[in-house]
Design brief:
The chain is α+β, with helices and mostly antiparallel strands. It contains 8 helices and 13 strands.
Length: 262
């Protein structure tokens, strides 16, 4: 075996292979759920039989077991537990060679416009940096940050952290929480006078049947970035009575029949 010298064009491969066409190659058992496919993750073997989420419209996946996501090559790397290059080789070798790749609908990575409230009690921070290298290192891309109004805070009380806006149930900006990006403790900080037990961080994009509940708002953002549509984060270690009520209201509004907890 000599070192492979063949040039692999990741972009070309992705254009030719739809993420949903990789299920058979990767021996994944995925079931269609609304716009997405869900199934167990054979790599993590945790998170239950719906840990893996693949969203064809975004050509992306997210694994709740590993809290990781990405494109079809990243999915292959996750399932095969290998690096991206080997994953791409695997897909290229087993791929159908479908030449109709050019017809593929252009991926939309720009989420729907968020409802803008006319009145805000707090002005959005204008100085946040959505493409700061620490934000990218945490797995968040600029588009997601801009969409959710999050970004690296170079100054202010959230300095050095990822500032994530928290809204009340009317969509009014009430505070920013600061998520550690360098392993600082505590992981989340809040401004004085703000009680995180009274709020949830919601990354809701469309009314669907299920709400996915995670603890860390960064996980919510990354899951959302990778196509998981209705993710809610509690901002605290435990779930307060106020938060339970907010969740119940959210379920009503979204006609959600269940909440999945990760
Ligand atoms: Zn996994």
């Amino acid at each position: 075996m000599h070192q492979s010298s063949s040039y692999m064009d990741f972009a070309e491969l992705k254009a030719a292979l739809h993420i949903e066409d990789s299920f058979d190659l990767l021996e994944l058992t995925m079931k269609k759920r609304g716009e997405a496919f869900r199934g167990p993750c054979p790599t993590c073997q945790s998170g239950g039989d719906r840990a893996l989420v693949v969203t064809p419209s975004k050509q992306s996946f997210y694994c709740f077991g590993a809290k990781t996501g990405g494109d079809v090559i990243a999915l292959s790397a996750h399932i095969k537990s290998c690096d991206m290059k080997s994953a791409a080789s695997f897909l290229a070798g087993k791929g159908s060679g479908d030449s109709s790749g050019n017809n593929k609908a252009k991926r939309s990575t720009v989420p729907k416009e968020r409802n803008k409230e006319a009145t805000r009690s707090l002005q959005p921070l204008s100085y946040l940096e959505p493409k700061h290298h620490l934000v990218q290192k945490a797995g968040l891309d600029e588009t997601t940050c801009v969409y959710f109004g999050a970004g690296y805070a170079p100054k202010g009380i959230m300095r050095g952290r990822l500032a994530i806006p928290i809204h009340d149930t009317d969509g009014i900006l009430v505070a920013y929480c600061g998520r550690a990006l360098k392993g600082e403790s505590p992981k989340l900080i809040f401004p004085n006078g703000f009680d995180p037990e009274e709020y949830l961080f919601t990354a809701l994009q469309a009314p669907i049947e299920e709400i996915t509940l995670v603890r860390d708002p960064l996980d919510a953002l990354i899951a959302s970035q990778n196509g998981v549509e209705n993710v809610v984060s509690v901002l605290t270690e435990t779930i307060s009575a106020d938060q339970l009520k907010l969740l119940a209201d959210l379920m009503d509004q979204n006609e959600a029949s269940s909440i999945e907890l990760y």
